[in-house]
């Protein structure tokens, strides 16, 4: 049986590559329940006609959140076993598009190099012989995606793939100019300005399974245009069609215009409604947050606070983009209906003094010291590990 993440040759090659979906507890604190959830479930061991052992795992992916640390697991085995480790090359790349790759990390013996935005954040786990796993610290939204681990021994090589998923929330977005005003690149930039990235199809599909219903089509990160419908109706593709994620296919990235579906994850900070005696206009709202040691919250930050902070406030407030919104976790009749979510009142005239303001304050202690703490925890964990141990993990394996 061929593992979906691996590409095994039908005939046994001198270099046998195996990828264990094993992850490590890399957050500074973890509860017993989290650790138990992270233990590896089932490992299948098969023996071929030659007597060599090939280890395969059940399909899976590693999951963390923005700001967390995660192990991308990769192990290899030599036939024969007396291969000089200094001649083994380990290379990690990110699959950015069909047949397109972004270099992440490469090691040849003791020589190592990290590329681009991964510099200072990616390290070999070094849990023992045959371990090609890497640790990514301070995970960003852009780290989401599919990674390839390639192990090369002279002329022989093999590869395996690992998917890095993020816990987060998908939200639709359109600018002050109105609906269907964004080409692909403008949509990408709009999400980035709201502390988010363009969502993937799998992220949008998951959001639909959780109840997202939106009747306007939006760009996704792969260049397709889609929209999720949980309650079919005539104005959204006919009432008699089944619920699902409607797909317009891949569209022209420069000429065609739609809305955007953005994705964001956990915050390194806190969103809060600034209590004031008087309502403020947009300019006054921006200044009020600054005087309070914060900044006006972005749309993605408000969604993240609703999702992870469980922020629930039945008061409309300005956001950084000039829109008026408020988050509802516990629906009630006077707060916009029967469903939880972030209510959107649109983009009013910025001179109106009818609203409050939502501010965002960054957690500066974590921002300044988080990387050092995480690295210390990783080094401590690595020293305790043996090459055949099953690591514990505060993140999920699905």
UniProtKB/TrEMBL annotation:
Record carries keyword GTP-binding: no
GO biological process annotation, one example: glial cell differentiation
Location, primary (coarse class): secreted
Record-annotated Link domain positions: 169-264, 269-361
UniProt keyword terms in alphabetical order: Disulfide bond, Extracellular matrix, Glycoprotein, Hyaluronic acid, Immunoglobulin domain, Repeat, Secreted, Signal
Pfam entry (one): Xlink
UniProt KW Disulfide bond keyword: yes
InterPro entries listed in its UniProt record: C-type_lectin-like/link_sf, CTDL_fold, Hyaluronan_bind_Proteoglycan, Ig-like_dom, Ig-like_dom_sf, Ig-like_fold, Ig_sub, Ig_sub2
GO MF annotations in UniProt: hyaluronic acid binding
Signal peptide: 1-27
Gene3D superfamilies registered for this protein in UniProt: Immunoglobulins, Mannose-Binding Protein A, subunit A
Coiled-coil zones: none
Cellular component terms (Gene Ontology): extracellular space; perineuronal net; synapse
SUPFAM superfamilies named in the record: C-type lectin-like, Immunoglobulin
Protein's name in the database: Hyaluronan and proteoglycan link protein 4
Organism lineage: Eukaryota, Metazoa, Chordata, Craniata, Vertebrata
């Amino acid at each position: 049986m061929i593992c979906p993440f691996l590409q095994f040759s039908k005939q046994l090659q001198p270099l046998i590559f195996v990828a264990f979906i094993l992850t490590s507890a890399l957050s500074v604190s973890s509860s017993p329940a989290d650790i138990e959830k992270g233990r590896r479930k089932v490992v299948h061991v098969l023996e071929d006609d030659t007597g060599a052992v090939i280890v395969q795992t059940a399909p899976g992916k590693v999951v963390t959140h923005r700001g967390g640390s995660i192990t991308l697991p990769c192990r290899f085995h030599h036939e024969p076993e007396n291969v000089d480790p200094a001649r083994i090359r380990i290379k990690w790349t990110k699959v950015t598009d069909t047949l397109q790759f972004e270099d992440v990390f490469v090691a040849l013996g003791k020589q190592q190099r990290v590329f681009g935005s991964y510099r200072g954040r990616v390290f070999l786990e070094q849990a023992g012989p045959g371990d090609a796993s890497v640790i990514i610290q301070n995970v960003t939204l852009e780290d989401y995606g599919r990674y390839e681990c390639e192990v090369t021994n002279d002329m022989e090589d093999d590869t395996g793939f690992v998917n890095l998923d993020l816990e987060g929330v998908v939200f639709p977005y359109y600018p002050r100019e109105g609906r269907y005003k964004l080409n692909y690149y403008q949509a990408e930039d709009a999400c980035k300005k709201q502390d988010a990235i363009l969502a993937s199809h799998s992220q949008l599909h998951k959001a639909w399974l959780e109840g997202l219903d939106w009747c306007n089509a939006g760009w996704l990160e792969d260049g397709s245009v889609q929209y999720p419908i949980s309650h079919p109706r005539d104005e959204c593709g006919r009432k008699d069609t089944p619920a699902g994620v409607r797909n317009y296919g891949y569209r022209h990235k420069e000429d065609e215009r739609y809305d955007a579906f953005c994705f964001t994850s956990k915050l390194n900070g806190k969103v809060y409604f600034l209590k004031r005696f008087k309502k403020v206009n947009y300019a006054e709202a921006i200044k009020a947050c600054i005087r309070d040691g914060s900044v006006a919250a972005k749309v993605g930050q408000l969604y993240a606070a609703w999702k992870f902070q469980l922020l629930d406030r039945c008061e409309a407030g300005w956001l950084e983009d000039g829109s008026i919104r408020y988050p509802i976790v516990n629906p009630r009749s006077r707060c916009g209906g029967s469903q939880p979510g972030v209510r959107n009142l649109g983009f009013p005239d910025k001179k109106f003094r009818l609203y409050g303001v939502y501010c965002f304050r960054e957690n500066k202690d974590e921002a300044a010291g988080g990387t050092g703490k995480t690295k210390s925890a990783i080094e401590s964990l690595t020293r305790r590990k043996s090459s055949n141990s099953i690591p514990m993990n505060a993140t999920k394996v699905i």
